[in-house]
Automatic annotation (TrEMBL):
Keyword Transmembrane helix: yes
Free-text note regarding domains: The DHHC domain is required for palmitoyltransferase activity.
Species this chain originates from: Acipenser oxyrinchus oxyrinchus
Localization, UniProt: Membrane
GO MF annotation: an example: protein-cysteine S-palmitoyltransferase activity
PANTHER family the record matches: PALMITOYLTRANSFERASE ZDHHC16
Gene name per UniProt: zdhhc15b
Stored InterPro entries: Palmitoyltrfase_DHHC, PFA4/ZDH16/20/ERF2-like
Name used for this protein in its record: Palmitoyltransferase
Membrane spanning residue stretches: 24-42, 142-166, 178-202
Keywords for this protein: Acyltransferase, Membrane, Transferase, Transmembrane, Transmembrane helix
Amino acid sequence: MLWSYYAYVFELCLFTITNGFEKVAYLAVFHVCFVMFAWTYWKSIFTPPSQPSKQFHMSYSDKERYENEERSEVQKQILLDIAKRLPVYTRAASGAVRFCDRCQVIKPDRCHHCSLCEMCVLKMDHHCPWVNNCIGFSNYKFFLLFLTYAIVYCVFIASTVLQYFIKFWAGELPNGHAKFHVLFLLFVALMFFVSLMFLFGYHCWLVAKNRSTLEAFQYPTFHNGPDKNGFNLGFSKNLQQVFGEDRKYWFIPTFTSLGDGHFFPMRFLSESRNPLLASEEQCEDGGSDEENYILRRGDPSVTIELDA
C-alpha cells in the first residue's frame, strides 16, 4: 500500500504526467480510493471479534454438575436443560446442544471456536491471514468493504496507468526510475485484481445466500438435520442482515449489521424447528419458503411471521 502510494502519487502523477488537469483529477480520485481502502483495511484488522455474552456461559453449579457426570447421555441432557433458558436452535452433528469445552459456553447459533484466536466468535466466517484477525459478526461488513475498495483501488490504478505503460514500452517517454514504478504498478494492480475478484465473488455469493464460509462447507444442523438454507431469508433481507436497513451507510465502514450476533432470523421450515418448541402450536405454512421465517431478535421468545 505504501509503495503503491509513492509510485502513483510521486512517480506517475508528479514526475511523469504533464497535463495539469489530468494530474489533479487523478490525484483527487486516487486519494478517495486510497482512504477508503486503508480505512476498511484498518477496521478489518483492529475490530475485535465479538464473543458470546455472559448468559451463554455455564454457571458454577452447572459446570460442576456437567464435569462430574461421566455418562454422555446425562451430559447431553444437562446441556439441553441449560439451553432451555437460551434461544439456541442449531445443534451439533450428533444432535446435542453445541458446547465449547475450552470456553465453557453454550454456543449461540452460528458461533464457532477459533483455535488461532483461542475464543468463540459470534457468526464466525473464517480466520483471515490477510488481516490477521477472525472475520465474524463484528467485522464481516468491514471485510466485504475492504475487498470492494481493494478491487476499486486496483481497477483505478490499472486503468489510469495503462496509457503510460504503453508509452514507456513504446519508447515515447524517457527511460528513468519512474518507468520501473509505472510498469510494476500495472502488473501488481492486475495481479491483485484477479485474485481479489475470486474471493470477492465467493463472498458475494455467501451474502446472497446468508451463509458463512464455515456454513458453506458444513451446513448448520437443526433438530431434523442439516439445512443449508436455514438462515436464508431472500436476497434483500440477506443483504440487510450484513449491511443494515439504511442504504446510505452500506458503503461506509461503520457497524450497521442487524442484531447482536446471538440471535438470527430463520426460515420457517419444519427441519429448522427447535425441539424445545415441540410443544408449541404447529403453524401451517401460509406462503413460500422465502416469505415464511422465524424472526428472533435478542429475545428468547419466538415470533412466527407469515406473509400472505
